[in-house]
Amino acid sequence: MCGIVGYVGTKNCVPILLSGLKRLEYRGYDSAGVAVIDIDKSKIDIVKTKGRLTILEEKLNQNPIEGFVGIGHTRWATHGEPSDENSHPHVSQNGKIAIVHNGIIENYLKLKEFLIKKGYTFASDTDTEVVAHLIEYYYDGDILDAFIKTLEKIQGSYALGVLCLDRPDMILAARKDSPLIVGLGQGENFIASDIPAILEYTRDTYILEENEIAIVTKDKVEIVNTEKEPVKKEVFHVTWDVSSAEKGGYEHFMIKEIMEQPKAIRDTLTGRLPDSGFEVNLDGINITKEDLQKLNKIFIVACGTAYHAGIVGKHVIEKLTRIPVEVDIASEFRYRDPIVDKNTLTIVISQSGETIDTLVAMREAKAKGSRTLGIVNVVGSSIAREVDDCLYTWAGPEIAVASTKAYTTQLICLYLIALDFATKLGTISYEEFAKIRDEIKKLPEKVEYVLTHKENIQKYASEHFNAKDIFYLGRGLDFAVAMEGSLKLKEISYIHSEAYAAGELKHGTIALIEDGTFVIALATQKKLFEKMVSNIKEVKSRGAVVLSVAQEGNTEIENVSDHVLYIPRTLDILAPVLTVVPLQLFAYYTAVQRGCDVDKPRNLAKSVTVE
């Protein structure tokens, strides 16, 4: 997911742009660059490069540039391989217009052919360069008019920042499907893809909506629509501190965020689950008993880690409400013509609220008449604004690419939704409700207990970090958690890993087990415990080395395992919140042992905003 930052003010913008881009590194990138209207306003200086920001800084140190207006970019390649030429910013043919872009221009080939016929030449393989040339093509002295005409021609997703040499006091910005904010300062203003990029300088922001255009100068910010009509915006004041987006003394953001999970869970529960009574307070959700009685199905749609949370949600919602639930990968959902109508509720889950596949799937469901409910972490994100109902996870900023606290807080939200629906439908007794409620409230303390024993997990990681393959086994809810544990391991350690439903072993997958194969077996579900013990015996008899995870007191598992990790005893339905924590830690310590870039694993971005 590309990162954009821009500055207009009275200071040299280059250090500010670099600082903002560093704050956006978590989004994933393969190249970086800046464009600055030089100090005498005679040209636009552009410095860009493939690779990390440190390379860009070295280039700028060798050939310094200076100016009061500029834009910066970290690129995640979509069209054209990572290279200096394909890096942003891109410049128009006459050198008067520079742009940065996050998203994909879907009709760029058609536009490129048109521009080539008009005499334009291209220096890159990107879709973005088309936008720079198209603005120049339409420019006749009014840069805003040219920008609007360009927006009317391009199709796809975009967040755009534009410089024009003829207006050296201004940045233009617009968005569609990709996030963009405007930071409001004193004698200076900013644009950025995300709040951390500008939090050092201001806490007041405008969050741009679809097809809004920001005209940013040092003393003023105007927001207009594509008809150039003024748009009234409310200031969004950021309350969290910049330090919460930094490592806070930890070696990596990922371990910091793993350790923050008790607080994140408490925050997500705050005010939503009263100590007494027979209700759940879901701010942002206004689904009535009558609404629920009309439902014949619930879809949960998400990608990656959020999808795995959705699988747990399916188990929990079906168990407590008896409403059929189907879980679908967002990138598949819209292309299979899903059977969705006014009697369907579609729950979409996304940490960023900007995941493009999930966003488009939500829109598809909505177009078919479904009510939509979002579980997101980022306030004001696209999904949060467009769903009918929204429940925030309150996990706080998550910087590491590998999601941890977002997953556990998504689980908490799904439990709360299931309890809310069950109480309204009368499918749960007060006694069962109270038992689950009281146990949920104990989860932060129990997660803290797991975290205090992280050295045991670190020891196992140090013994098995050279494994070629690692397999995860589980049944029921344990299988859902096994999928997430396996994903965490493979995405940051690059070890081949798979999760299997343990009951499927004899249907083919046991052929993969050989002498020395490392297996992580999850056995936290009481009703399935004996069957899991049998499955562990099956892989042990083929030579596997087994690390098992079980609830405290189930010591029988020690007889069939090489190592055992115990989680505090809890209700089986809530065990995923505790079970996933040692799996996160195992993945983290394994990746550290292997010398991997834990927070920015190769080929991955924090939020996927292109299909």
TrEMBL record:
Keyword Calcium: no
Signal sequence, start to end: none
Compartments where located: Cytoplasm
GO molecular function (one): transaminase activity
Keyword set, alphabetical order: Aminotransferase, Cytoplasm, Glutamine amidotransferase, Repeat, Transferase
Active site: 2, 606
Function: Catalyzes the first step in hexosamine metabolism, converting fructose-6P into glucosamine-6P using glutamine as a nitrogen source.
Protein name per UniProt: Glutamine--fructose-6-phosphate aminotransferase [isomerizing]
Lineage: Bacteria, Bacillati, Bacillota, Bacillota incertae sedis, Caldicellulosiruptorales
